[in-house]
Amino acid sequence: MGSEPNGSPIMTRICWRLVDILSGMLDADERQAVRGDLAESGESIVRATGDFLGLIVRRQIGLWTEWQPWLALLGVACLAGLPLSRIAFRFNVDLGQQLMALHIWSALRNPLDPSARYGVVALPGDRVASLVMDVRIRLGFAFRPRRVAHVVRVLPHGFGFRIGKIHIVRKRYPA
Amino acid sequence: MLGEFEYLILSAATRLREGAYGAAIRQEIEDATRRGCSIGALYTTMDRLETKGLIKTWMGDPTPQRGGRPKRMVRVTANGIRAASDFYLAVRRVSRGVSWEVNRMALRS
Question: Is pLDDT larger for residue B46 or for residue A5?
Fold first, then answer.
């Protein structure tokens, strides 16, 4: 009693990381209460993670038994998704062209400034990341109902935002 | 009419009185039924009971035993007590004249 669930250190870390990621699908209060219950029970980390996953699955199934998520999926994501995607794509291309022109002009004016040259190189990568972001933003808008939104945000997480955009921003603006 | 698991939660929460919260109710049910009780089943059923107005839940104060995390406290409402009592009386009525112990022994022999 009173300690975190037991298990080997690596397994414990992996399971708690999994629990941390997935716990975003629960309300803040419930997340704390459930994690407290798991800590208090002192059961194995694998069983605790299974319990946690079970709760999340039940919660998600419960959400999809209501009509609002289906309306959001069919009405917004499917019907409005295409025009929204086209607008986002057009906006991204226009903005990208203007930024590219700005970077090239800046590189020509200041040939010794490495940041200006870096901008020319980094921009295409930025634009690819932005295209992935478009899809994410579109889906994010579509799935406003609280916990459903997290599922949609988590799925393309590794492909778009984390690998592309943050990496570039961190490289360009190191802390 | 209540479900079996709903009745178990109401009974455990009533027995625990002021000390009724998620982990304690779960332990009580596991001790009584000698079966595992998943947190998912417990919390979703508690939500259902609260929607029906049979229990009231609120977040308690954080305690060090739980790593500073709060408890989801539970109180059975008057409607909850009535529903659990009706369920229990129905089980008693329907079990009248049935001896499960005798039947179990008959199965063994």
Answer: B46
